[in-house]
């Protein structure tokens, strides 16, 4: 049994599918952090159902109370291409917070495996997507929990860590999942389309293009580079 973080995005979907393919019973955890793109939570529910999750918890945790990100505050989402450095769509300590919640559920449920869909190649430069972060959190889990102290360590799985977005799309195809039910856009249009201009849309579109696999996503504007 594994607790799998399911945001509704493409990466988290393929991470969850990897857990399922590896034989784990899936407990899906999504966080309603009052994100701008709350539509992703509907996608998370679709993903959890499609993978036969035994339980799907959508946990409310309003990070807009802190702000500090274009996803949780009144800050424009950049639309001028993928930029170097850490962009304003970074949510302070988001993956640390999410993994801590997943760890709490895992210990309570008797699970010792956690899955997260972070990626350190084709991504937006977030510090909490790097291998160093995953390794450090795994060490923290061992000393911060009753299970870890009693010799039952936790394993943090990041199966997409070293994949390009094209590799992730190919893996989704290999696993036979419907990638069209996932959601990536940070700034959805009023009509419910992917904007096609934010970093996440551009990375998603480029992944399908480079993989040579048809993109099932409905974009308001065709993503560029």
From TrEMBL:
Pathway annotation from the record: Purine metabolism; 7-cyano-7-deazaguanine biosynthesis
A Gene Ontology BP annotation from the UniProt entry: tRNA queuosine(34) biosynthetic process
Cofactor(s) it depends on: Zn(2+)
The keyword Ligase is assigned to this record: yes
SUPFAM superfamilies: Adenine nucleotide alpha hydrolases-like
Gene3D superfamilies in the record: HUPs (3.40.50.620)
Enzyme kind, highest EC tier: ligase
Family according to the record: Belongs to the QueC family.
Role description: Catalyzes the ATP-dependent conversion of 7-carboxy-7-deazaguanine (CDG) to 7-cyano-7-deazaguanine (preQ(0)).
Protein name: 7-cyano-7-deazaguanine synthase
Species per Swiss-Prot/TrEMBL record: Sphingomonas parapaucimobilis NBRC 15100
Source taxonomy: Bacteria, Pseudomonadati, Pseudomonadota, Alphaproteobacteria, Sphingomonadales
Gene: queC
């Amino acid at each position: 049994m594994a607790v799998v973080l399911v945001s509704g995005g493409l990466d988290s979907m393929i991470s969850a599918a990897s857990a399922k393919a590896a034989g784990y019973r899936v407990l899906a955890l999504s966080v309603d952090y009052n994100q701008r793109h709350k539509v992703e939570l509907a996608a998370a529910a679709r993903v959890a159902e499609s993978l036969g999750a035994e339980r799907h918890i959508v946990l409310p945790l309003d990070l807009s109370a802190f702000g500090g990100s274009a996803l949780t505050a009144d800050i424009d989402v950049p639309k001028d291409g993928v930029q170097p450095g850490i962009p304003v769509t970074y949510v302070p300590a988001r993956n640390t917070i999410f993994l801590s919640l997943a760890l709490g559920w895992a210990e309570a449920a008797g699970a010792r495996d956690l899955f997260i869909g972070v990626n350190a190649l084709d991504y937006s430069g977030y510090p909490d997507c790097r291998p160093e972060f995953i390794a450090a959190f795994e060490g923290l889990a061992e000393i911060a929990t009753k299970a870890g102290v009693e010799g039952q360590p936790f394993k943090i799985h990041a199966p997409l860590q070293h994949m390009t977005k094209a590799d992730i799309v190919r893996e989704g195809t290999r696993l036979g999942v419907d990638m069209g039910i996932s959601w990536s856009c940070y700034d959805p249009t009023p009509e419910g389309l992917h904007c096609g201009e934010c970093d996440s849309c551009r990375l998603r579109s480029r992944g399908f293009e480079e993989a040579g696999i048809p993109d099932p996503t409905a974009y308001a504007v065709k993503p560029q580079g």
